[in-house]
Amino acid sequence: MDISPEKLADAYRLMKTIREFEERMRSEYQQGKLPGFIHIYRNQEAIAVAACLDMTNEDYIASTHRGHGHCIAKGCEIEAMLLELACKEDGLCNGKGGSMHIADMSKGMLGANAIVGGGPPIAAGAALTAKTLGNGAVSMAFIGDGASDQGTVAESLNLAVVLQLPMIFMYENNRYAEFTKSPKPDGRIAERAGAFGMPAEVVDGSDFFAMYDACQRAIMRGREGGGPTAIEAVCNRYYGHFEGDAQAYRNQAELDAERAVSDPLPRFLADPRAAALTEEKIAEINAAILEEIDRGFEVTYAAADPTPDKLYTDVYIHYEGRLQ
Amino acid sequence: MKMSIREAINQTLHQEMERDERVIVLGEDVASDQGGVYGITDGLPAKFGLHRVIDTPITESAIVGAAGGAALTGLRPVAELMFVDFLGVCLDQILNQIAKFRYMFGGQARTPVVIRTMIGAGTGTGPQHSQILYPLLAAIPGIKVVTPANAADAKGLLTTAIRDDDPVIFCEHKALYMDECEVPEGEYLLPFGQARTAVEGSDITIVGMSRTAVIAEEAATQLAQKGISAEVIDLRTLSPLDEGSVLESLTKTGRLVVVDESNPFCSMASEIAGLAVERGFDTLDAPVKRVTSPHTPVPATPCLEANYVPSVERVMAAIEETLSY
Ligand SMILES: Cc1ncc(C[n+]2csc(CCOP(=O)(O)OP(=O)(O)O)c2C)c(N)n1
Ligand SMILES: [Mg+2]
């Protein structure tokens, strides 16, 4: 596996950004400063970052309710994201989407999704665009282990095979759906996807390098017209389903053990392949991240709420009817 | 006993599962320790076992469709569609299957399924978790649509829904779960198609349902302070619809404001306004007013969401216009 020093630094920066961004968000949320439901991605950062590292703004992703990490990995601006998560006028979706619907078309980020299983058909459509235009772009759907059971996912798997779409099914198997432990053994999801007729593999989702390797192959396959790929990234959901869920239904000792082994950041730094990343460089990256997040929050809290007339904008592009 | 809507629904499920072993509960997280996000199914798995309280995968088509199939073949399932917005995922099973079995099979079929679902805005969760959608459901022949506004009605209507041999969609407004009132002990049934006169009055009729019935009552209280006597009708079930109570109230008041959290087009407010104009025309002294949400999705941002749903102020403004006509 090849990774340039720039990409290596990028990979670290993005994973660390997701981590710091969300930890700060949690604390602000706990103080009642952010609205809605938020779903934290902690310990799954290596998946989003490995998945998007070789993508450009021309490539697409369709995300889930747990989408902050996907956004950051796909290049969404921290400040614009924060403005959206706080539902401000200048947020990515003008405050109308919030955490569960955050999107950035300019980055090929086709939206978080509050409908479990809502993303894969959309990602299949984006892959169809890429195939039709023949531009070598790929499209990826992020799919939870819970979401993997949705009919929409099965239909998208089938369509992707039938149409040989440049698509990647990125399953994030954190072994929980809300308060319910997954009854599926690890690997079952990849097995199912494979049965539709596409290459499918199980990868350790907290091992950045293993993930990057698998993603590079899948993306290459898509770009070269080789059709869809499925990756089951096995990982751990560090926090509760949404912020505020104390996970009383999880065995604490088990959870502690899982948390320790599934943190992708120390694993990344301990890997010989990350040796090119010096202590100094890491410190520099860390400082820049914290500064960017601080600045983002400062701007966000000073920012304006949408004005009341905004309730009626963007329902349509053009409409000659009454909205009120 | 005083209890919340949440507790009333939970108690009813306990009572009906106790009474009839063909009643089963299925849905996402319903058998989890905390009884789902709002604790509605709390205590059911321990009491009735995991063969009757069934955690399903996240597959709404299969949940709703299988509940329909089980109902068709002898069980009385209570399926949970966590948010009514997820209707989008399973509409075929409701629209083309469950709702039509009885008619298209020439009266052979009986589908005693209840689909419990959460409706409404107010939690800052945005366009895909905040909709009302009951007019869409009420428009489908073959299913019944129930929208309780208080805990006693929730108990009485849910009991009836579970014992009813037709498919019923039971809509629970998430902003009302914690609202408490006196609830009759023991077995308690309320008939479908019978509105509740929440407040008696003679100057104007305000019609509401689910949360807007509560808003209408608040408006009536404010009006009373101004010496205006409003009659509040809570529809309780949208299909069947108690047309008689609305028309009768109009003979007393001659003025009508309908408050409905739906989007305005093809809303329940439109339906009631149409009813008043078509069959109550002679009784009307002023044009009918509809107070609804706008023809837009529900915004995530709380500052816009607050203006989205009908407020007491908007209801009062509509009433003033109607009275001064
Ligand atoms: C169609 C639909 N059904 C149910 C839900 C409620 N819900 C939100 S997240 C979730 C669990 C999803 O689990 P998984 O796909 O494993 O993702 P994770 O939360 O673990 O990231 C459920 C049931 C929903 N939002 N949409
Ligand atoms: Mg999961």
Structure commentary:
The complex is a heterodimer of chains A (324) and B (325). Chain A is an alpha/beta fold and 324 residues long. In chain A, 43% of the residues lie in helices and 10% in strands. In chain A, the strands form 2 sheets. A 5-stranded parallel sheet of chain A has the order 1-2-3-7-6, sandwiched between helices. In chain A, strand 2, helix 6 and strand 3 form a beta-alpha-beta unit. Chain A starts with a helix and ends in a 22-residue tail after the last helix. The mean pLDDT of chain B is 97. The N and C termini of chain B lie far apart (44 Å). Chain B contains 12 helices and 14 strands. Chain B is globular. Chains A and B meet through loops of A and helix 3 and helix 11 of B. The complex binds thiamine diphosphate (TPP) and magnesium ion. Magnesium ion (MG) binds next to strand 4 of chain A.
Short description:
The complex is a heterodimer of chains A (324) and B (325). Chain A has 324 residues and is α/β, with parallel strands linked by helices.
CATH architecture annotation of the largest domain in chain B: 3-Layer(aba) Sandwich
Radius of gyration of chain B: 19 Å
What is the CATH topology of chain A? Rossmann fold
| Tally of strands of chain B | 14
CATH topology of the largest domain in chain B: Rossmann fold
Number of helices of chain A: 11
* Poorly predicted sequence stretches spanning 5 or more consecutive residues of chain A: none
Number of domains of chain A: 1
